[in-house]
Amino acid sequence: xxxxxxxxxxxxxxxxxxxxxxxxxxxxxxxxxxxxxxxxxxxxxxxxxxxxxxxxxxxxxxxxxxxxxxxxxxxxxxxxxxxxxxxxxxxxxxxxxxxxxxxxxxxxxxxxxxxxxxxxxxxxxxxxxxxxxxxxxxxxxxxxxxxxxxxxxxxxxxxxxxxxxxxxxxxxxxxxxxxxxxxxxxxxxxxxxxxxxxxxxxxxxxxxxxxxxx
Amino acid sequence: xxxxxxxxxxxxxxxxxxxxxxxxxxxxxxxxxxxxxxxxxxxxxxxxxxxxxxxxxxxxxxxxxxxxxxxxxxxxxxxxxxxxxxxxxxxxxxxxxxxxxxxxxxxxxxxxxxxxxxxxxxxxxxxxxxxxxxxxxxxxxxxxxxxxxxxxxxxxxxxxxxxxxxxxxxxxxxxxxxxxxxxxxxxxxxxxxxxxxxxxxxxxxxxxxxxxxxxxxxxxxxxxxxxxxxxxxxxxxxxxxxxxxxxxxxxxxxxxxxxxxxxxxxxxxxxxxxxxxxxxxxxxxxxxxxxxxxxxxxxxxxxxxxxxxxxxxxxxxxxxxxxxxxxxxxxxxxxxxxxxxxxxxxxxxxxxxxxxxxxxxxxxxxxxxxxxxxxxxxxxxxxxxxxxxxxxxxxxxxxxxxxxxxxxxxxxxxxxxxxxxxxxxxxxxxxxxxxxxxxxxxxxxxxxxxxxxxxxxxxxxxxxxxxxxxxxxxxxxxxxxxxxxxxxxxxxxxxxxxxxxxxxxxxxxxxxxxxxxxxxxxxxxxxxxxxxxxxxxxxxxxxxxxxxxxxxxxxxxxxxxxxxxxxxxxxxxxxxxxxxxxxxxxxxxxxxxxxxxxxxxxxxxxxxxxx
Lengths: 214, 611
Prior knowledge:
Chain A is α/β, with parallel strands linked by helices. Chain A is built from eight helices and eight strands.
């Protein structure tokens, strides 16, 4: 057993514990199970959409423009996909949802060490998540516990701890990364948006067709 | 400026994702990847970005050419006359041109330029204040690259506008909507900048050279400028009419949105005129769509009695038609908002939809459809301040109701979860004791939770010669007609079941008991008679018959003894009653009631607990 058993206190052969671990694994990995978690009204839409790694009619750089969004399976699929990304230098990312441009969700992301800021475009209306990564990224080999939120974070990423706690009711909080992975950086205020990124945010905000209130 | 800010600005200009969002290419390194926006990490190589709004602007596309424009039909161009040529030169040139052009046209042009009354119109429609040489270049350039005049700077306002109006003739159905909206905005702002005195000065400067009498009255200029403005509006309108309808609506919306900052600022006069013309032309369409909305609202109302499934298809259609309506009405709504008024037709339509939303909720309790319509109104009619405010209040009210219902459902679910329990009882032949929101069942007897009027429970410890041999637990529950009695040995089942029973039944019985007392009814518990303001106990006498004594709550005390709940007079030890927990119905509830009352100092009536 890896981190998950440690998370819950070692290799206890406890049935409830094993069930909890299996549940977390399913949340993180099992695409079919992730589909089960979406709203019943939304599920048929996802299932009837094409399953592909990339929109064959998409244009522009994959994941970086709304004309070529990353296909994923619902809101949990968004978390699962983005939480798997890491830069070529091995930095995973924290992320939150800014809103949507039509049906495409827009996420802001920053590396765990605060060195890189990104805007991703994700299309959640698909039955499975893409196996491709945006340029400059690869999939992490770590267990990809969730490192972001499919809702807007007012003080992103400084409110990570608070937002993680708010996931308690959704039952997802156990599937999140340990706070210790980012607490040091938060404490030292390493997350500062560069000028270009701020400009992108301004432009994106003016174009969002839906957004969550701050 | 700090150097790191400069460095960041330079980085920003090289960021392909940012440049793509701005609709431009990066200043350098066009093959650089979009992102990372960082001080430390550098972009990796990927193909260049294609913007979402990637249609190249018309100016960046193949250059359009024109064969002629309105400016090429003015007397000055027809005769190749400059504003500084005198009467004699005009006549000469008219004679010369008559050899190659239509004679009547040349003579009319000559007449227009030499007659002081008509000359002013020709001058205003020409390029006042522009040197003859420059004018000639501009007129020629207009044919090769009409849109290039948009980049001209330093031209007198009127002359620039006349050139721009001519450039509108190059707009065709393929023109980019966003660019055309910008073009119209440029012209609208310039029209507001025209100064009649500047125009008077420019014309008189040329007239001083050409020898024509100076214009003295400013009102002559103003009258001509008013006519000129009508011409600009007509030039733009003609250009818009060449667009496909969807593009036309988009251009109008973008234009009004841009100049009014979303309906917040007053628009230039030209835009208001354009919108008024647009409103007249779209009236037929809007009227027809409004009729469709009315029909759908009626159909939704008529079908509401058949349930939400019957209404939903109409609301779906209403959504689509209202969006269609709003798309076309958007420029008018924005313009009206900027002028501080509501677009009446939109307002009426919005109120009709709102009325349906209210009816669906108030009369038919269709919260989802009602919320949907309210959301639609919020989205589509945000430009109507009065409607927007009311709809906002509706949306808040519905959201509160929705939230409360969700909470109620959650509370009900939680309660259902808390009271649900089943257990197998018996050693050899097992029976199932179960409790859930559906009721309590035991050995083929079932009671709905609401029907239960009595409960009792307790345990009896057994021993042989002082050696404990176990405890038997009894739980009984029943309605007015019958009672089920459960005997069991397992304490954990007993405890769990009593816990569930308390939540599921006893809390209600306690409330009902208080209500009964409040209504003035008395309730028997064994030998005791319970009143709202006290209790009637029994005074036990060694000789003679027992006597009933009525005590107030301040006169009694309570305790437990021998499996009974005891109530006695504080002043007389012989006046008391013991009520068995296990044999008398609802003793536990009575105890809870009295204990609650005793925690409230000065309480005189049990029913005060309800307050």
